[in-house]
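Input record, target 12 of the design panel.
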């Protein structure tokens, strides 16, 4: 079984450069898109919340994964955005 990062590298290598820019972003660019600090993005990476692979000292974040994570986090908040909504115990 291959690790997810290996699959992302294969995807990255199979794409033309223009498509790579649509699906992957460096840490700082992904943080800017998510409107969080780069440190927060690295925390999410370390926690395995977003899919990425490492290139030297930086990461390439898979943007569909980031979008899914942000949508999941948004669904945990109440409609007024004030209080976290608890997930049912069976989820």
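The sequence produced for target 12 reads:
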């Amino acid at each position: 079984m291959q690790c997810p990062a290996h699959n992302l590298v294969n995807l990255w290598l199979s794409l033309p450069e223009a498509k790579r820019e649509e699906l992957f972003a460096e840490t700082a660019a992904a943080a800017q898109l998510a409107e969080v600090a780069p440190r927060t993005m690295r925390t999410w990476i370390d926690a395995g919340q977003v899919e990425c692979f490492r290139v030297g000292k930086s990461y390439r974040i898979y943007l569909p994964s980031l979008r899914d994570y942000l949508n999941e986090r948004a669904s945990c908040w109440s409609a007024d955005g004030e209080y976290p909504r608890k997930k049912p115990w069976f989820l």
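The helical segments are 4-14, 17-23, 27-34, 38-46, 63-74.
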